[in-house]
Amino acid sequence: MRIEERSEGDVVILRVMERRIDARSAPDLKETIGSFVHGGSEWIVLDLSEVEFIDSSGLGAVVSALKLLGRKGDLVISGAREPVLALFRITRMDKVFRLFPTTDEAQQALAARV
Amino acid sequence: MVVAPSLEAVPAIGEAVRELCRAEGLSDADASLVELGIVESVNNVVEHGYHGGGEGRIDVRVIADGRGVEASIRDDAPPADAKVFERPAERPLDRNDRTSLPEGGFGLGVIHTVFDEVTYGREGARNLLTLIRRANG
Questions:
Q1: What is the value of ipTM here, to two decimals?
Q2: Which of A25, A81, B54, B97 is the most exposed place for a label (fewest CB within 10 A)?
Q3: In whole angstroms, what is the distance from residue B29 CA to residue B118 CA?
């Protein structure tokens, strides 16, 4: 899975550069985000603006990454398109994850710890 | 479409279903939802019916028109218990207790949200899952 990484302060921004996150790629996504958490990253923006489709396996990988953080930090979603947002709504994960229209807004919210 | 029981085959099915639905006049949002529901259904067949792969085939047929969408998914995996296709109970979600959050088990709930009718049965020696989404559903 292709993921671009950049940091602003202590906020890590991970941009998924794939059109689909599905049962094939979910383990890779889980491992990649997990490597940042294990490396000490606590404030993570997952930029899904390039993603056109995600299934429940992909969503499970994102939940798994949030759980890895334990009580520390946060993992938020930015730039999700309608098909991706729909899955968050159907599974009620839109009540668990904070969803931001843009990565800038997500990064600023995490940087300000709000 | 007829495919081998492999997760590698699922994206092509999903994209073909979405394009069919669009061509038949469904909105982009509805077409994407139907794609999601079919992908979840075929994922279940591959992962639970075939335990990830093996011999056999999966037949996916989708009809879309102004009345809605009817899909049938046939496979050669061992029979399943029809009860596992019932709509699952809604699970509590507590964002303040991350360790309690479910990492899986979303698929069937998604399928029941996308489709108004979800029916599992046997057709001869094959499994048959029938999914219906009504246009006004």
A1: 0.93
A2: B97
A3: 20
